[in-house]
Amino acid sequence: AQVGVAIVGAGPAGLVLANLLLDQGIDCVVLERRERAAVESRARAGFLAATAVETLTRNGLGDGLLARGRTHRTCLFRGERGEFTLDYSRAGRREPHTVYPQQELVRDLLTAYLRRGGDLRFGARVTRVTPGLVRLHDGDEVRARYVAGCDGHRGATRAALTARGTRTARWDHGVTWLAVLAAAGPSMAAVGYALHERGFAGHMARTDTVTRYYLQVPRGTDPADWSDDRIWTELALRMRAAEHGPLRPGAVLERTVVDLRCDVLERPGAGRLWLAGDAAGLISPSAAKGANLAVVQAATLAPALAAALAHGDSKGLDRYAEDCLPRVWRAHEFSHWMSGLLHGPAGHGPEARYGRALQYARLESLRTSRAHQDHFAENYTGV
Ligand code: RFL
């Protein structure tokens, strides 16, 4: 038997696509290498832009985020010259963010898909993709008219596409973050970005009881070297808690390192294989765009695949790259700028002094220029 679409990966991209294809009456199967509990508990992103929220709610997938998500309107910057709060919901397109943990979104999408009879196989690791055929680790095979690669950055589908000559554009910021998830309520009202000569520190509220923090650390850092105490001491120092008030401590639930790297496939698909989300391109987490791009790309791919399957109309697929890439590159451009704002060079030499002075010039421009605030807001909340 052959399905219409075999979707590899049950992350935000794969599950949005699966739900939308089901709506269109397209038969599909989702193949996910992990077990359900692991998929539903993986904490990563938290910030959903208005476009992603609108895409989800318009397709009947937004009940959870509307009920339990929180609205964020401001972010705060700290540095050696004090702090300031930017109300981005009053600038640019005047859009707030919705803070909703990625694992909750994934749980909602999974539940919606399975409740409507969607086919999904957990513990199904795809090892090889050839046109129309997906091979699993246990030797099983799935035949499909189209394969949708939604298996993230290290998945199997990207390799299948690049092997056919699709080129990649790539950047390494040379920066690494220790990403910490703490069993603690938020320490400040908003997202906080702290510039410090010891390195960047970030605070991202998630829920009343869980907060994400980031610490810039050297490449190659072993997270096990960072005890709870060391994390809280370093965070307090970089976030200048002595000046601005203490952080709310709690047990560290998770510590992982993330290298700030990016890449974009020049063509996110061809023939019978189409990619969305991190599989099509990885964006550094500095501007929290990854999950948003995944949702929006999947929503662009769904009608294109449906038209190709239902009416043999491939115009949407032919246009898929053009429809996605300008948005993707704009997100990368902003993310790149954000990374330059947050990370100064290490050391004390003339170049380090120059780089840090630039960081503060950028921050000062953002603090004082209404035009800059509008531009920031448009990009910060946009996808
Ligand atoms: P995912 O979420 O990685 O899902 C891919 C799924 O595919 C499965 N898979 C396979 N299945 C079968 N066979 C194979 N061979 C397979 N290989 C992989 C995996 O098990 C998984 O279930 O990709 P997707 O759907 O493209 O979604 C992308 C987002 O998850 C990602 O961009 C974001 O999490 C990035 N990100 C953030 N994005 C935001 O928009 N806002 C944020 O605040 C934000 N914070 C973050 C982040 C990513 C982080 N990390 C861990 C890199 C914070 C962190 C710390």
UniProtKB/TrEMBL annotation:
Residues 3-335 form the FAD-binding domain. InterPro entries: FAD-bd, FAD/NAD-bd_sf, RIFMO-like. The chain crosses the membrane at residues 3-22. It is an enzyme of class 1 (oxidoreductase). It comes from the Bacteria. Its EC number is 1.14.13.2. Keywords: FAD, Flavoprotein, Membrane, Oxidoreductase, Transmembrane, Transmembrane helix. GO terms for molecular function: 4-hydroxybenzoate 3-monooxygenase activity. Pfam families: FAD_binding_3. This is 4-hydroxybenzoate 3-monooxygenase.
